[in-house]
Specification:
The complex is a heterodimer of chains A (about 475) and B (about 260).
Chain A (H helix, E strand, L loop, with lengths): L7 H10 L1 H23 L4 H17 L1 H14 L3 E5 L2 H14 L4 E4 L3 H6 L1 H7 L3 E4 L2 H9 L15 H11 L10 H18 L2 E4 L3 E3 L4 E6 L3 H7 L3 E7 L3 E2 L2 H15 L7 E5 L13 E7 L3 H6 L13 H5 L3 H4 L10 H12 L1 H4 L11 H5 L6 H14 L5 H13 L3 H18 L5 E2 L7 H5 L2 E2 L6 H16 L1
Parallel strand pairs in A: 1-10, 2-3, 2-4, 4-7, 5-8, 7-10
Antiparallel strand pairs in A: 5-6, 6-9, 11-12
Helix pairs in contact in A: 3-12, 16-19
Chain B lengths: L2 H4 L7 E4 L3 H6 L1 H13 L3 E3 L9 H5 L3 H15 L4 E4 L2 H14 L6 H10 L1 E3 H8 L16 E3 L3 H5 L5 H11 L19 H4 L1 H17 L4 E4 L2 H14 L4 E4 H5 L14
Parallel strand pairs in B: 1-2, 1-3, 3-4, 5-6, 6-7
Helix pairs in contact in B: 5-7, 6-7, 8-10, 12-13
The chains are: A alpha/beta (about 475), B alpha/beta (about 260).
């Protein structure tokens, strides 16, 4: 998908003016936060589960080559195919070739962030293939021709009424009216049933790739993943390389922290493992089973200072707890992954040039790290990206030179204290009438939305010195 | 080398007060209240004159080279003391959580950073957890107005400050906190963030103010001047009159001085 991350400021301002979006975001903030908390309270050993999940992931990442090769052999052994895609374009090309070889006209898809990352739908559609998203949220945004705004709730930015209007425009409703959420779901289900039954190829994502068994694990709440994987002639799973785990038990370890963190459920309605094509005697299943593994800069991350980011299991709890994400929503970020995890991934995957504002969209509040079930040090990584931003000369000149001068000044206490005395006296005079200052020349972003409260007028160091001098002479 | 040995006859711990650039520049009252509280709790207090700022603005903006130099200065200045106490969770967090990361792998400095980190505390955490400071009866009764408390992010998450200020307020001044919703959510300050992305910061601080209003607060307290100036400055721009004060001042009984968003002359 094409990145619009450089428009972050304009897009976020627009998002904060959008009343519909704000009402949805307020609910999201309160709702998912509460659900996660309640879910975790019911799991007495959640801290242990987190530690274990993290150990599983660290071990796997340390031996990633080994487990990926094991996964590949296991898939081949069970009659499936594994394809390696270094770039997004590679993945799209491989998927298209498989579809074309199968003579596919219709493709169903269950939710996949990897397919969003590579922009797969566009490539298939341009080749004349009909692609239908079958996750309700994804289906809604496909009709709206919008990218997802949240990694587990892609249409979370839409109000009920907006969905009803979309269905009115795209479905043949006749005399029927849609009112309740149930009527919306029923309507989508009716339309999607036909799509499931008539699809030639089903494309799914994967939450886990199990090395030992060659199976892929899929977590959904709608069952659409199962229909996508089992009904069409060909099943293609697209996944990034860090999704591999050694054993089914390890997949289960990740599952146990993933779901409570993501939705506040103990487990999702459907947890399915698929592998290999239909065997003789199987009642259902595809004739062909393909897995396409995507790198897209992940091996660079593995080898460098952002390796911990590969521990991320895409639960989205950092989005739900981020004060910036819940203020501006996902579209403001301009690419596939929003919020704290997105502000790390987007610059690493699409380049610093376009995305360098994102690591600045952070008040360093630390909530993301606090709630992350995999202990990803997101604030440290965002700071590290700001360091790279500075090294690459992408920081605005005013900030760069202003802060450098300030940091140098801190190392010269006499000049610093003189400057501080002068500054506080000047600010005191400026704010005399109002008790605050409405506009300052340096860091004017501050006074764009708030006053600068007036200082008391003398520095503490100045007053302290004076007090001690008096105290000392009094003692003599 | 250590100042402790000079005063061995005196068993009171010697505290180096890290005053912070914002208290020094904007609100010396917080500094004097801090000294008073530390002395009441049985400490001797010194304020090293060569100190300036912890360097967090540069560190957070990616200027690691200068941040390392500033960190080394702070370590040199403050390592002779028994404790370093800071009336700010943010600067205390910079010293105790970030200096060790910043100087990791640098011979001699890594260890010195870790030693200083161990003895650096946020004010209310220090008074409660290290000094066990309590009064047999409240020193004065400031109840009668509705106080709420904003848990500043770094105080809460880096310095584990949560119950300590509430306990001290109750014990020293008979003040019971009326909790607002989302008290652990960021106020939108975030250092340079407030000036780099003012619209998003405004959105965040407005949510904070709304929740303080919903709680019926007359006074918002907190332990970090940056956050308090953000809330106070926005309150002032909106023409709202909930008072914003630093917890140290209230703990020292100083409700008489004008609030941070006080009126002009």
């Amino acid at each position: 998908m094409e990145s619009k991350s450089s428009e972050f400021l304009a897009r976020s301002s627009e998002a904060m003016r959008d009343e519909h979006l704000q009402s949805v975001l307020n609910k999201l903030r309160a709702g998912l936060e509460y659900k996660r908390k309640a879910a975790i309270l019911k799991i007495p050993n959640f801290e242990e589960l987190k530690e274990h999940a993290r150990a599983v992931k660290d071990h796997t990442l340390a031996n990633l080559d080994h487990y990926l090769e094991e996964f590949e052999s296991s898939v081949i052994e069970s009659g499936g195919h594994v394809h390696w895609a270094r770039t997004s374009a590679d993945l799209n090309r491989i998927a298209l070739e498989i579809c074309q070889k199968a003579g596919a006209l219709r493709v169903t898809k269950s939710k996949s962030m990897i397919a969003e990352e590579t922009g797969l739908n566009t490539v298939l559609e341009e080749a004349g293939i009909e692609v239908t998203e079958t996750d309700l949220g994804e289906y809604i945004i496909q009709l709206a021709e919008e990218p997802p705004s949240h990694i587990i709730g892609p249409a979370i930015h839409k109000t009920k009424q907006q969905v009803i209007d979309l269905f009115k425009n795209h479905h043949d409703l006749g005399e029927r009216e849609l009112e309740s959420v149930k009527s919306i779901v029923d309507e989508a289900r009716k339309v999607l049933r036909d799509k499931f039954c008539n699809a030639d190829v089903g494309i799914t994502g994967a939450n886990f790739l199990v090395a030992e068994t060659g199976r892929i694990g899929l977590v959904t709440n709608e069952g659409n993943g199962d229909l996508t994987a089992t009904l069409p002639r060909v099943h293609i799973a697209v996944a990034s390389i860090e999704k591999v785990v050694p054993t089914p038990e390890d997949a289960s370890a990740l599952l146990r922290v993933l779901v409570p963190s993501a939705t506040g459920q103990p487990i999702t309605s459907y947890v399915s493992f698929f592998g290999g094509p239909r065997k003789q005697g199987d009642p259902d299943g595809p004739e062909e089973f393909h897995v396409i593994l995507l790198d897209n800069n992940r091996t660079d991350m593995l080898a460098g200072e952002f390796r911990d980011m590969l521990r991320c299991i895409r639960c989205a709890t950092c989005l739900n707890h981020c004060p910036v994400y819940t203020s501006v929503g996902g579209h403001a970020y301009g690419w596939v992954y929003p919020g704290p995890m997105g502000s790390v991934l987007t610059p690493l995957m699409t380049g610093m040039g376009k995305a360098h504002l994102l690591p600045n969209a952070c008040s360093s509040c630390g909530r993301c790290e606090e709630v992350c079930p995999m202990g990803v040090p997101l604030p440290d990584m965002l700071r590290q990206l700001r360091t790279i931003e500075r090294e690459q000369g992408l920081t605005p000149a005013g900030w760069r030179w202003g802060l450098t001068a300030f940091m140098k000044l801190l190392q010269h206490p006499r000049i610093y204290h003189l400057g501080a005395r002068w500054t506080t006296a000047a600010l005191k005079r400026m704010g005399k009438k109002r008790g605050s200052i409405a506009s300052i020349p340096v860091g004017s972003g501050w006074t764009k939305v708030r006053e600068l409260p007036s200082p008391e007028g003398r520095t503490f160091q100045d007053l302290w010195r004076q007090k001690n001098r008096k105290g000392a002479s009094g003692n003599e | 080398m250590t100042k402790k040995s000079d005063d061995q006859k005196n068993s009171k711990p010697l505290v180096g007060l890290f005053i912070t650039c914002l208290v020094d520049l904007m609100r010396p009252s917080v500094g004097f209240a801090t000294v008073e509280l530390l002395e009441q709790a049985g400490c001797r207090v010194e304020v090293p004159e060569e100190q300036t700022c912890c360097g967090k603005p540069g560190y957070n903006s990616g200027d690691l080279a200068n941040a390392r130099d500033v960190a080394k200065r702070v370590i040199e200045i403050f390592e002779p003391y028994d404790y370093v106490v800071v009336p700010s969770g943010s600067c205390a967090g910079m010293i105790s959580r970030h200096y060790p990361k910043l100087l990791a792998g640098i011979p001699r400095w890594e260890n010195r950073a870790e030693v200083l980190a161990e003895k650096c505390f946020e004010l209310t955490g220090f008074l409660t957890d290290v000094m066990g400071f309590t009064a047999p009866a409240p020193l004065s009764d400031l109840s009668g107005r509705t106080f709420t408390y904003h848990d500043t992010c770094t105080g809460l998450r880096e310095m584990r400050v949560k119950a300590q200020p509430r306990q001290l307020l109750r014990n020293l001044r008979n003040v019971e906190i009326t909790e607002m919703k989302g008290t652990e959510e960021c106020c939108g300050f975030g250092g340079t963030f407030a000036a780099k992305m003012p619209d998003i910061s405004r959105h965040m601080v407005d949510a904070k103010i709304r929740r303080a209003e919903d709680a019926g607060a007359q006074i918002i307290l907190g332990g970090d001047m940056g956050c308090l100036m953000n809330i106070a400055g926005r309150m002032k721009r909106l023409g709202k009159d909930i008072e914003v004060r630093h917890v140290a001042e209230v703990l020292a009984g100083r409700l008489d001085i004008p609030a941070i968003n006080g009126k002009g002359e």
